[in-house]
């Protein structure tokens, strides 16, 4: 068999491949590299066009500039909030601030707990800290994280 292909009108299909058997190894590699680059460019163009059309005006979450702008905005909001808090609670002192805001992270507090079971007292170790805490309103909502686990191919 010659390996030639013929179309419906007995025309040979010509992809402008040239004769690969007549090329040297270096020429074949160069030819395949050019074909790969062409295919990659067409894919990138179509992918970018699809992305632009599907996200009209949407921001790219991977864009570093957008992320930096977002972080700067958050930082400015935090500074404004701290300044406002200092203006409000600066004269009244720390007690008033704690009464309105609650205990901040890292503050040491003395807690009195009533109705402790005897097992707690018998197994309590004063060298080990007892961690108490609460959740902010944002942390009390149900949060979902999407993830995938994949076993290694060697794991049986």
TrEMBL record:
One of its GO terms (molecular function) is GTPase activity. One of its GO terms (cellular component) is 90S preribosome. It holds the Pfam family RIBIOP_C. Residues 1-11, 26-54 have a biased composition (Basic and acidic residues). One of its GO terms (biological process) is maturation of SSU-rRNA from tricistronic rRNA transcript (SSU-rRNA, 5.8S rRNA, LSU-rRNA). Residues 17-156 form the Ribosome biogenesis protein BMS1/TSR1 C-terminal domain. InterPro entries: Bms1/Tsr1, BMS1_TSR1_C. Residues 1-67 are annotated as: Disordered. This is Ribosome biogenesis protein BMS1/TSR1 C-terminal domain-containing protein. It comes from Grammatophora oceanica.
């Amino acid at each position: 068999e010659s390996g030639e292909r013929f179309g419906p009108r007995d025309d040979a299909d010509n992809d402008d491949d040239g004769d690969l058997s007549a090329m040297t190894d270096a020429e074949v590699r160069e030819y395949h590299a050019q074909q790969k680059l062409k295919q990659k460019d067409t894919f990138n163009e179509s992918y970018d066009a699809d992305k632009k059309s599907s996200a009209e005006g949407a921001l790219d979450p991977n864009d570093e500039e957008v992320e930096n702008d977002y972080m700067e905005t958050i930082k400015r909001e935090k500074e404004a909030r701290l300044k406002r808090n200092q203006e409000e609670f600066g004269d009244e002192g720390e007690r008033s601030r704690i009464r309105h805001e609650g205990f901040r992270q890292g503050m040491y507090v003395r807690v009195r707990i009533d109705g402790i079971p005897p097992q707690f007292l018998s197994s309590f170790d004063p060298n080990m800290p007892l961690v108490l805490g609460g959740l902010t309103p944002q942390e009390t909502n149900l949060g979902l994280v999407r993830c995938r686990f994949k076993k290694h191919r060697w794991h049986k």
